[in-house]
Amino acid sequence: MDSRSRACPLTRRQIVDEYFLENRARLLEIAAFLDRLDRASDAGGEEDFRIEALYEAVAALHSTTPSRARRIQMIFSDPTTEPLEKLAGKGAVGVWDRRKMEGR
Predict the structure, then answer these.
(1) CB within 8 A of 72, min separation 6: which ones?
(2) Mean pLDDT of the chain
(3) How far is CA 11 from CA 8, 14, 16, 45, in A?
(4) In Å, how far from its chain's centre is CA 77?
(5) What's residue 5's pLDDT?
(6) Whole-angstrom distance, CA of residue 78 vs CA of residue 7
């Protein structure tokens, strides 16, 4: 499959015209969330694994290499292949806690 068969049918200008404002709003929402964390009463405490992953994902956005979405998805994903005997909790948290593998 050559790169043209995977190309978006829209021009760069059309993509920017259509999607810029909604993505600008998303970035502002993330910035506001991080600002609230900075102002939290326990702001100097240990960083939550979800926030560590979010910072890593934001750094991946800055890259100019292709497949940013895939790389960011992998930051949040559980890379293990063995099934768990028992879940640690009831709900999803949105990111895999890699500290479990690092023994933290």
Answers:
(1) 57, 60, 61
(2) 86
(3) 8, 5, 9, 46
(4) 10
(5) 56
(6) 29
Q: Rounded to 5 degrees, what are φ and ψ at 66?
A: -70, 170
pTM above 0.85, yes or no: no
Q: Where are the domains of the chain?
A: 8-43, 46-80+89-104
Query: Which tokens is 39 given?
Result: 């102002």
The residue ranking higher by pLDDT, 16 or 62, is 16
Task: Calculate the CA dihedral of residues 5, 66, 53, 104 and round it to 10 degrees.
Answer: 110
Q: Locate the DSSP E strands across 57-103.
A: none
Q: How far is CA 67 from the centre of its chain?
A: 13
Rounded mean pLDDT, 40-62: 88
> Residue 65, by phi and psi: left (phi above 0), alpha (psi -120 to 50) or beta?
beta
Tokens of 53: 């992953």
